[in-house]
Amino acid sequence: MIKIKNLSKSFAHNNILKNISAEVAQGEVIAILGPSGSGKSTFLRCLNLLEKPTEGQIFIKQQEITAPSCRTHLIRQKIGMVFQQFNLFPHMTVLENLIYSPCQVLKESREKAIEKAETLLKKVGLFEKLSAYPSQLSGGQKQRVAIARALAMEPEVILFDEPTSALDPEMVKEVLEVIKSLAQQKMTMVIVTHEMGFAREAADKIWFLDEGKLLEVSSPKEFFKKPKTVRAQQFLEKVL
Amino acid sequence: MFDFSVVIESFPYILGGTFVTLKYTLLSVIFGFIVGAILALMKLSSSKVLEIFSKFYTSIFRGTPLLVQLSLIYFALPQMTGYQISAFEAGVIAFSLNSGAYVSEIIRAGIQAVDKGQFEAAVALGIRPRLMMKDIIFPQAIKNILPALVNEFVNLLKESALISIIGEADLLRRANIIAAEKYIYFEPLMAVGFIYYVLVILFSKMATILEQRLNKSD
Q: Closest chain B residue to A105 measured between Cα atoms?
């Protein structure tokens, strides 16, 4: 599904990501863990080219998205993204947030987009907030709307950039529940997170990043029980 | 000591000047906004040439007196092109070009004040730049832009008094004409000063109301 080959990213002379190669299979849930400053977010943002990789290649379904000829906006339609700060459009209602891109980008009919949006809002438990503005929602509700907005584009994969880091503790669960239910439906997802319990429970694989290197790829069971690298052991000692 | 009866006598004449002044201001604000919007987009574009051009434009129009710009267009343009430009045309052109420079800065700042996450979310959804600007960024930027834009309108309204120099019968010019005819200065000048002030207060108030409406969705 996603194939990353020798990916590097540097800002000026600062090497953020160093020669990362990895693969994501269809329907797989990847949790990216690592200390802050290890390049997790930058790595995730390279996958939909919000950051341009300095070197290396990324393939999505055999298509090289890092090729100069690649039409970036078409690729991004197939890759959903959920941000730490939600980034809902504040001047649009919840419904408008959900139907804008399907109508304008995918050229779906308004009726079809509304129907789909309603189904998605029911799925994330916010159907009654249809005509509310983002400012009238709690953090957890905003993030659930943001997930629904990403789903409305019917993406092949969704990237989550610390989806619960900006939330009050009591709202973390409702968002994680939604992501877990997506995992059960075999949605391909790559999730940068600090929620260790969630990673252990919901992820198929853990990618451990440290100082821009992908140090470890393991199943959650292995990773949390017996990490292969010293750096990962130290990391787990600090966070668990 | 003061004789305001002269002013009251010529009130319809002075009031006529109000419409001349307002017509100038309104046209210049509209054209200035168009010029400013184009310049702002150039400043934010990825093209270095467009960016340099618009920055140069802004620095020229902000760095020279409006009166010089107006004189160049009214007096020097006919000399160079042979086209006899009317005072009205010269006034509107000079004010629009000048205002465009200021408005472009207002719009640029307004757009850049929109949260970076909004651009990223739009880009991540595959929304093309043109649609993103029109439907996502600009509706949010307008809330930052509007108050400053009204300021610009008010400034323009006051600076429009400069067109009396090139002979347009605006408020100030009409006050001076009455002054010259009747040999009194204080009363007609006080009268037009008062009219300018009332207009400024009126437009500022309208802006406040508009701003409150725009902020409703937040």
A: B127
Contact A133 B124 (CB under 8 A): no
Q: What is the pLDDT of residue A88?
A: 97
Q: Would you call B126 and A87 a contact, using CB atoms and an 8 Å cutoff?
A: no
Among B118, B125, B135, B146, pick the best mutation site for testing chain A contact (most A Cβ within 10 A).
Answer: B125
Q: Which residues of chain B have pLDDT under 70?
A: 1, 216-218
So what's the ipTM on this one?
A: 0.92
Q: Give, in order, the Cα–Cα distances in Å from A217 to each of A30, A194, A214, A220, B209.
A: 10, 17, 8, 9, 58
Numbers of helices and strands, H then E, in chain A: 9, 10
- Give the domain B5-216 fold: MetI-like fold (1.10.3720)
Q: Give the residue extent of every domain in chain B.
A: 5-216
Q: Are B131 and A103 in contact (CB under 8 A)?
A: no
Least Cα separation, residue B113 to chain A (angstroms): 14
Share of chain B residues as helix, strand and coil, in percent rounded to the nearest 5: 85, 0, 15
Q: How many CB atoms lie within 10 A of CB B168?
A: 22
Q: What is the pLDDT at residue B217? A: 54
Chain A residues with CB under 8 Å of B217 CB are 90-91, 133, 135
